[in-house]
Specification:
Distance between the termini: 13 Å
Low-confidence stretches: none
Strand order of the largest sheet: 3-7-6-4-8
Radius of gyration: 15 Å
Shape: globular
Order of helices and strands: EEHEEEEHEHEH
Helix content: 25-40%
Largest sheet: 5 strands, mixed, barrel
Strand content: 25-35%
Number of strands: 8
């Protein structure tokens, strides 16, 4: 059995309530809610794989509005005691997956302005979201394989939240198509 995970129910609107071979978890947005909900789920049930689907802002202009496999995640909203952005005082700067793909920057706020993108982009990420680092970190603590698929909903610039609201349903359909192709359900 696999666990299908999304931060928001709106990211799963294209998915049936009962997807064969998958349990479903909506965690709520942000790193704390993601950590709490996924920890509870993995503590209660043994899963063969965690499959995360959701939306992300593209901060790399070369990334089109498509679905991307995530290969690594970093936190863009932390600094260590020396003030180095992206470095946490006790967590790894990067959590990596055995997948070819895109690095995503995770933070606890919705990125919607060019100034924020200018700070985040040099960290090496192509996408930005609010949960992926937490999902990967938790799954790795439990020793459960995890796969993350993100659909680009916006450009993380001024007005991105309006773009996200307009795009989330289409992104859900893109993600549903990818799950259908990759898992046959």
């Amino acid at each position: 059995m696999r666990l299908l995970v999304a931060a928001l129910a709106s990211e799963l609107v294209a998915f049936p309530d009962d997807l064969p071979g998958f349990d479903r978890l909506v965690t709520g947005p942000g790193k704390l809610q993601a950590t709490y909900a996924l920890t509870r789920a993995l503590d209660a049930t043994t899963y063969d794989e965690v499959v995360v689907v959701g939306t992300a802002g593209a901060i790399d202009a070369r990334l089109d509005a498509d679905v991307y496999e995530i290969s690594a995640a970093l936190q863009h909203d932390v600094t260590d005691i020396d003030g180095i952005v992206g470095q946490h005082v006790s967590l790894p700067p990067l959590v990596e997956l055995d997948a070819e793909g895109v690095t995503i920057a995770t933070g606890d706020h919705f990125v919607d302005d060019a100034e924020a993108v200018a700070v985040i982009r040099p960290l090496g990420a192509g996408l930005v979201d609010m949960e992926t680092y937490a999902y990967i970190w938790v799954a790795q603590r439990f020793g459960v394989p995890i796969r993350v698929l993100k659909a680009v909903s916006d450009r993380a610039q001024d007005g991105a939240i309006t773009d996200w609201h307009a795009a989330v349903t289409a992104c859900s359909h893109q993600l549903r198509d990818r799950i259908r192709v990759d898992y046959g359900v």
